[in-house]
Amino acid sequence: MTEPCDVAIVGYGPVGQTLAILLGQRGRSVVVLEKQPAAYPLPRAVHFDDEVARILQAAGVGAELPRLTEPALVYEWRNAAGETLLRIGRGGMGLSGWPDSSMFSQPDLERVLDARAQALPTVRVRRGCEVVDLRSDSTGIELAVARADGHRETVRARWVVGCDGANSFVRRHLGSAVTDLGFFFDWLIVDVVPRERRVWTPINWQLCDPARPTTVVSGGPGRRRWEFMRLPGESVADLNSEATAWRLLAPWGMTPDTASLERHALYTFQARWVDQWRKGRCLLAGDAAHQMPPFAGQGMCAGVRDAANLAWKLDLVLGGLAPDTLLDTYASERVAQVRQVVAFSIELGRVICVADPAEAAARDAAMMAAVKERGPTPPLPTPAIGPGLLVDGDPLAGHLFPQGEVRRGAATGRFDDVVGRGFTLVSPVADPASRLAPELAAFFASLGGVSAHVAPGAPVHDLHGTYARWFAENGVGVVLQRPDFHVFGTAPAIDGAATLVGRLRSALEGST
Ligand SMILES: Cc1cc2nc3c(=O)[nH]c(=O)nc-3n(C[C@H](O)[C@H](O)[C@H](O)COP(=O)(O)OP(=O)(O)OC[C@H]3O[C@@H](n4cnc5c(N)ncnc54)[C@H](O)[C@@H]3O)c2cc1C
Questions:
Q1: 34 in ligand 1 pocket by Cβ < 6 Å?
Q2: Would you say 116 and 61 are in contact if contact means Cβ atoms under 8 Å apart?
Q3: Whole-angstrom Cα Rg for the chain
Q4: What angle do CA 39, 146, 21 make, to 5 degrees?
Q5: Would the CB of 351 count as within 6 Å of ligand 1?
Q6: Partners of 225 in the beta sheet?
Q7: pTM more than 0.90
Q8: What is the DSSP-derived secondary structure letter of residue 321?
Q9: Is 185 touching ligand 1 by the criterion CB < 6 Å?
């Protein structure tokens, strides 16, 4: 049986789910093929950042986030004596209009994303369907599917995205080379539901004790996560048992009387990415394309960013509004950022994974001196994306544009919900669309472009001065934001709106 669809997504983890929703919301026909008959029930990721929250907002689940998450204002690192080595956090909203850090339980988030995806009329989610072969021709790809009931079938799609996780079949099929930084450490992950609610201060922290490097964080509302590093000379079997989990939890007041153990599992964290994210009609996203140690809480975040970058590009290509070379910018933009995030996660890991007391003492002395001098460290901004569909030479291009709270008419809320999203022109001076000649305005409208005059007292009232500050600090009069919230380009005066839209049109025609 053949089922022609716009996009077949292989794998229904959080990345496949987000991509399915973002494409389905654009009216694209999507078939998701997931080999497991049921969702993975145990926690993995526990942290996402403000940009990911904004992407989830775009995926239609923003209203659920306060219920699903616990904001984490501080991430503190302490040594064995309890002295502070590092304090990350400024205790507020991130640039994207959501808390800098949100703690959550991955199965809870996946449940909400699943409900959203299943509610979209053009998205079909098929569980118990393992993709076992792929064959491309000039108009599409045939996916051979082995069903859990023993039957085989064929699904036909114009594009395929492998969101099939760390052991990706699609990646192996493409034969993509992998860059592996060779950073391996084993950690025992223990998820606990304490019987009594308690305030944890700080909510998230690292115990940099060479006797047992330990991570102690929220696992979302009502849950806690401990991560214990395997020490030199300790065997995997020694560490990975329920008895060991309880023994290591006991000093933290967690016993079978005070908590239930949701699970324990030993993970070997890796640091690697694929060099080729696209081959013909096949693309990779999420863990299929990159894996990193969890110390920055960025693995799933990077995958959700992949989905946000890819969805609008696939939509434009499917709609005939851009050539398929636009999809090459997906890889060039994403891999450059992923490399930096992996490197940062390793840097954190190198500081944390120290089991030698002398090395730890030297580290502590250097870090304590720095923290006294510098005070709390603001969360590191996500690095800019790499070269791609951006205005060359504009230092703001490729960075995120903020989302603030606004009022328009009777509606008050986050900009994207009140005004809209997609390609967005924003100016603090006037409505930038008023500076577009009819032909350019028609092109912008064909993309579903949004235009807004945002300022205190303007038709879109800038409630907390978020936009006024950004425009003033950057000396900008107009910005063109992409559907994934990155700046395409800026101009010092509002009349530059026409140049920006003209450059977008040329870039899409040529797809740089
Ligand atoms: C202990 C731990 C802590 C972590 N903490 C964080 C954190 O705090 N923040 C963060 O951002 N990330 C974190 N991560 C990483 C995060 O969990 C992953 O990056 C994320 O789950 C990857 O999502 P994915 O959708 O790419 O892949 P997955 O969730 O692995 O989903 C892939 C899916 O593809 C399916 N599949 C595979 N092959 C096939 C096939 N041939 N046909 C059909 N289906 C197939 C699989 O069954 C699976 O359901 C953590 C990970 C671990 C293990």
A1: yes
A2: yes
A3: 24
A4: 45
A5: no
A6: 191, 217
A7: yes
A8: S
A9: no
